[in-house]
Amino acid sequence: MAKTYCGSCHLFPDPLLLNKTAWKNNILPPMGKMLGIGYLYDMPYVAKKNPSLSVEDWNKIAQYYITVAPDSMPPQNRPPIQKITSLFFIKAVGTPIGKFPASSYVKIDPGNHLIYQGNAFDSTINIYDATLKEVSNYNIHGVLIDMNFHNSLEQPGERSGILTNIGIMNPNELKTGTADSFMIKKDGTFAYLAKLLDSMPRPVQTISCDLDRDGQQDYLVCGFGNLTGALYWVTKEKTEISGKKILRALPGAIKAYIDDFNHDGLPDIMVLMAQAQEGIFLLLNKGNGSFETKEILRFPPIYGSSYFELDDFNGDGFKDILYTCGDNADLTGNILKNYHGIYIFLNDGKNNFTEKYFFPLHGCYKAMAKDFDKDGDLDIAAISYFPDAAHQPQESFVYLEQTSPFQFKPATIKEFDEGKWLTMDAGDVDGDGDDDIILGSLVPPIRAQQEHWLNSSTHKASLLLLENTTVNNRR
User: Fold this and answer.
1) Burial of 86 (0-12, 13-18, 19+ CB in 10 A)
2) Can you list the positions of beta strands (E) in 274-331?
3) How many distinct helices (H) and strands (E) make up the chain?
4) What is the mean pLDDT for each group of 10 consecutive residues in the chain (475 residues)?
5) Single pTM value for the model
6) Per the CB 3.0–4.6 Å rule, which of 19, 60, 95, 179 could disulfide with 206?
7) How far lies 107's CA from each of 36, 100, 129, 149, 415, in Å?
8) Non-local CB neighbours of 308 within 8 Å, separated by 6+ positions
């Protein structure tokens, strides 16, 4: 019955994914409500209007989860991270007294030696040079969550593209997001141009594209939403919006790539979906505006999928998947989950992927692969927004040095606790030939967390620049 009813809206959740208390108090009551079963105090359940199953059957399902689930969650299968890496020289942008860091987006522009930062609390985009000196700031009247650039950032010059404004950042069903064009001059001067799309469901990514090959610039939108949302494609004719095609009518689209994945000459889409239907899906372009969906990877709804990118880890010429899960802002946010962390899935050359590597990292939010130490293989930098703050706060930033194929040595930085790292990017911002890292800190607009932050002993950095010392050997 659990597989029938609990697996009807998402992948069947194994009872071992949470402890008994979490199932009983946090998960089963709201799940029962969705099936038309009410929850009165500690027990019993009662039928509401038009329930999907009987109270007796629901009680059996509830008892199954509570009985099979462990009393407590197993620990991470690794020792605590203790080594401090000497690879980076640390610089910081502080936060004014009485205010909170609010970095909703960070990006390194290596060609112009600039750093772009979105500030969620004052609705600005701030631009810094490679020394973290502020070059300019501009009020965009929204929360910057992503920038899609029309041209490469590797060469110097003007930048133009699409800015994604999520609207209201906290979970909601409103459609207050927008996509706006922008231009940034080579010296970092920002020019807001025009609104392209509005009434968007908490969008987190807008990609300029031409999926139907008609010569017109269209847009692919990851409308993350909340309980509702969609991955959709907006078409244009000349300068006017001509249509909107829903590609996945579900919330949780968090990141997408457009490429010809099956080499048939048509642009396809690979997308990471969070929320209930968590997984990575390949939408194969069949022409005439139609797509065929192939399931690449599926994850339980409790994983908290947060990011993925495509990298060739084994040098076979095929892009593998670097995936993270760790979004713990849900009904079980107080539970540390041993399956949160960094995963590598290898591509067999036919877009079939198998797990090759896993590094446990509580609350992992993002991981990026670069050859940071310039030894010929890919290393990984990762951040956690929900680390084990009580026992292992150094998890908030982890550098994984690849010492041999798929063997990684973990380390952190001594400044790991100077921010609550929500965003990260990597690139050669100072132009010395190695990849640097920028971390952006954001304290949620929750009174208790803000007060804790103000009373903490950390330096409350808004941005942290990890300047790579490999080439200049400044260690």
Assistant:
1) exposed
2) 279-287, 290-298, 305-311, 320-325
3) 5, 30
4) 88 95 92 81 68 88 95 94 97 85 97 97 95 95 96 96 95 95 93 90 97 92 97 84 91 98 96 95 95 97 97 97 96 94 97 98 98 98 96 97 98 95 98 97 82 72 96 69
5) 0.95
6) 179
7) 45, 20, 12, 11, 20
8) 255, 272, 280, 321, 322, 323, 324
